[in-house]
UniProtKB/TrEMBL annotation, chains A, B:
<dbReference type="InterPro" id="IPR036388">
    <property type="entry name" value="WH-like_DNA-bd_sf"/>
</dbReference>
<dbReference type="InterPro" id="IPR036390">
    <property type="entry name" value="WH_DNA-bd_sf"/>
</dbReference>
<dbReference type="Pfam" id="PF00293">
    <property type="entry name" value="NUDIX"/>
</dbReference>
<dbReference type="InterPro" id="IPR054105">
    <property type="entry name" value="WHD_NrtR"/>
</dbReference>
<dbReference type="Pfam" id="PF21906">
    <property type="entry name" value="WHD_NrtR"/>
</dbReference>
<feature type="compositionally biased region" description="Pro residues">
    <location>
        <begin position="230"/>
        <end position="239"/>
    </location>
</feature>
<keyword id="KW-0378">Hydrolase</keyword>
<protein>
    <submittedName>
        <fullName>8-oxo-dGTP diphosphatase</fullName>
        <ecNumber>3.6.1.55</ecNumber>
    </submittedName>
</protein>
<feature type="domain" description="Nudix hydrolase">
    <location>
        <begin position="10"/>
        <end position="147"/>
    </location>
</feature>
<dbReference type="InterPro" id="IPR015797">
    <property type="entry name" value="NUDIX_hydrolase-like_dom_sf"/>
</dbReference>
<dbReference type="GO" id="GO:0035539">
    <property type="term" value="F:8-oxo-7,8-dihydrodeoxyguanosine triphosphate pyrophosphatase activity"/>
</dbReference>
<feature type="region of interest" description="Disordered">
    <location>
        <begin position="204"/>
        <end position="247"/>
    </location>
</feature>
<dbReference type="InterPro" id="IPR000086">
    <property type="entry name" value="NUDIX_hydrolase_dom"/>
</dbReference>
Length: 247, 247
DNA sequence: CTAGCTTCTTGTCAGTTCAACAAAAAGCAG
DNA sequence: CTGCTTTTTGTTGAACTGACAAGAAGCTAG
């Protein structure tokens, strides 16, 4: 019970970033090699302290995005993921981190930031498989970010955030396949995405070609919520009882 | 750029709670009348400061749930909603709040807690309609909590958290209707929920009755993710173009 | 104790969607 | 032109959806 003299204990606030992108059809996350203690020399998610008492949290996330990844937050998707405050998560003391999820299209190779000795894109599979590990509770944060991405591309247009301004339907399919981790039928995918009102806007008869038949170009449509959603099939180990079988 | 002497600014951390329940088929939220400044005498969401530097955030939420609402957190749904840290959100200074969403079944009339002069269930419609207002940015938090509930009962079993241990399918339908704000066909609803594998487990031939034919009793099943999801129909103002019309 | 009322449960049926596969279209390389 | 790749359009049977009818199982009133 708080008495008259009790004062709430102050904590230090950081932002951490799960920045995802697609490189050669594989899902990558941006990680840094820590240049300072604790966990010096280990891999970690980019992030840092709130810079001053007047800085909004999302502004801090945007700033770190710029400082540590040289990415412009105005052009890419950024959302709050969750707040991680286990008392023992940081050996320096009570440090609470507001994690964010960022989705970036394409490519630019990142540069080392202020307190990171190296920053690089790494396939997420390196971490989910356990081959590489992350400092602090960043493994948990990454898992939560991936799960958020997996479920959110089901019923929102988030997948378009992985693509450039204009893209083909096959480009979009690569996003779904990389995030979900299995392949989809191109013919059914092709019609399904176009059947969702407001998901995609065709950009005038423009096309682009590499090897096969040229593909139509689209851009993200006005609708953020996908109805009907792009439901991923259940894992193949489950035998889904159909409504008729159940009766 | 942080120099050698720079120290991250400490902030004060609070937890706030959006506690939802159903009373006579209407969605209610628990609000308190603030007993202390700021906003003394205004309505607000229950919440409070982290009690000490070693308290985990979710533990703080559980504690506030007990202190301010006399609810046992072990038996009800509690999840993190989001973190609100606009620099000007609290006139006392830089106070960051980790909001949580709690779902409670039924009934007990709450009692006034430590720094709340009154606590009571209030229909959410009072706030969403603008008839009543909330202190701080709690209106935003409530809106976010409601939206989270609306979308989450679509593809998770969250709706069962509004019900008692055992419940009828009509009970469950009332939850969906209250949260979504419109009525559903009982006959289609009846079969739809039972067609989702793992959503409901029938409890042995038990029944219960008030006026009509006795209804079967169920309890929450083992599955947390609903496949297929309980999709709400789109708002009636939209004319959904069918796939065949689109072609 | 039967008629009527309420609520729960099962049936039915047409329109729509979905997944799997075939096939056509459109470019390029040789 | 022939073959190869990739994109786009068709087809088809099974499954799901939403709207509604009808039966089942209690209670209450007369």
């Amino acid at each position: 019970m708080p008495n008259e003299t009790w004062q709430p204990p102050p904590v230090l606030l950081t932002v951490d970033l799960v920045i995802l992108t697609l490189r050669s059809s594989t899902l990558h996350v941006l990680v840094i090699e820590r240049g300072i203690a604790p966990y010096k020399g280990h891999w970690a998610l980019p992030g840092g302290f709130i810079s001053d008492a007047g800085e909004d949290i999302v502004d801090a996330a945007r700033r770190e995005l710029r400082e540590e990844a040289d990415l412009d937050a105005t052009s890419l998707h950024l959302e709050q993921l969750g707040t991680y405050g286990r008392p023992d998560r940081d050996p320096r003391g009570r440090i609470v981190s507001v994690a964010h999820l960022a989705i970036a299209p394409g490519l630019p190779e990142p540069e080392a930031g202020t307190d990171a000795s190296a920053a690089s894109w790494c396939p997420v599979e390196e971490f989910t498989s356990g081959r590489r590990s992350l400092a602090f509770d960043h493994h948990q944060i990454l898992d939560d970010g991936l799960e958020r991405a997996r479920t959110k591309i089901e019923h929102t247009s988030l997948a378009t955030a992985f693509c450039d301004e204009t893209f083909t339907i096959t480009d979009l399919q690569r996003v779904y396949e990389a995030v979900w981790g299995f392949e989809l039928d191109p013919r059914n995918f092709y019609r399904k995405v176009q059947a969702v009102p407001g998901f995609l806007t065709p950009v005038g008869s423009d096309r682009r070609t590499t090897r096969g038949r040229p593909a139509r170009l689209f851009q993200a449509g006005p609708e953020h919520l996908l109805r009907p959603p792009m439901m991923r099939p259940l894992p193949p180990d489950q035998n889904p009882p159909t409504q008729s079988e159940t009766k």
